[in-house]
Amino acid sequence: MSYSQYSGNPYQSGPAQESGYGTSNPYGAPEQHELQQISPGQNPYGSPQSANVLSQQDFLQRVSHVRNEIRSLTADVQRIAGLHHDALVGSDDTAQRRLDDLVASTQLKNTGIRDQIKSLKSDVERTTDGSAPMKKRQFEALNGDFKKELQNYLQEEQQYRERYRDQIARQYRIVNPEASEDEVRQAADADWGNEGVFQTALRTNRSGQASAVLGNVRARHNELLRIEQSITELAGIFQDLDTLVIQQEAIVERAEEQTEQANQHLQEGNKQVDVGITHARRTRKLKWWCALVVFLICLAIGLGVGLGVYFSNKAKNTATNATQ
């Protein structure tokens, strides 16, 4: 069966692009002649997010779709539990065929949900704007809900396996009433698909009833193998989800480390800015002092020249008056 058999693919539509900082111009303020400090957490470049990151709305829509799939899985597990009972007590193969079909479609659904959660996890990793915390919370809640439902399904399959083994043991006791507990346990664990095992058990009782019972046990052995395979697949998916959580925690830790490093760099940069501001103010004060000194020098020169001309003219006038 292919993945497309259980539901439509919610990922056909291309992801929408998110804008990291909107359309406002951070440089539209009046010109400042002093250096400006950068607050921790502020992006000084205003670069937009990658085009393949889902918008918050698209992300929530996909989360909603996966939640609907998980609710559908819950209903399937309940139906499987009922068919388990019917298959154990039924005398025909109708319940068993319905059970096999439902288990196969449910396994496909499990795989599909897992793949969708992986896709959402990848989107969380690529998100760098303010929606990242929300996406992370949604991802963790969704992953936890799916793991919880998988755990319920796994427990149901394990209980069904034990009931099946008990049924095989009871049927073996019908064929061999004198069998010990160890022999019964070995019979429950035996590979009844093997012709040698079947013939060996048949030698102990060659009645028609024994042959029919052992034939039934042999036929049901395939179902026991199917149960084991289902449990293995569920355990594999469960392990994948645990890995997703571990990887996500590592990503968060790296993000926190990067944020801390960025804040440290910003603090160091702000210290340099403070030093630059202090130097700029000192330079400006020095310029004012230099201008004042130049002004005073020019004033002194002007006064000196003016006074010299004044006293020179006065001396000339005095000499002229004396000769007259």
Automatic annotation (TrEMBL):
Residues 136-170, 245-272 form a coiled coil. Residues 1-51 are annotated as: Disordered. Keywords: Coiled coil, Membrane, Transmembrane, Transmembrane helix. It is found in: Membrane. It is a single-pass type IV membrane protein. Its main location: membrane. Pfam families: SNARE, Syntaxin. Residues 214-276 form the T-SNARE coiled-coil homology domain. Residues 1-26, 35-51 have a biased composition (Polar residues). InterPro entries: SNARE, Syntaxin, Syntaxin_N, T_SNARE_dom. It comes from the Eukaryota. One of its GO terms (molecular function) is SNARE binding. CDD domains: SNARE_Sso1 (cd15849). The chain crosses the membrane at residues 288-311. This is t-SNARE coiled-coil homology domain-containing protein. It comes from Phomopsis amygdali.
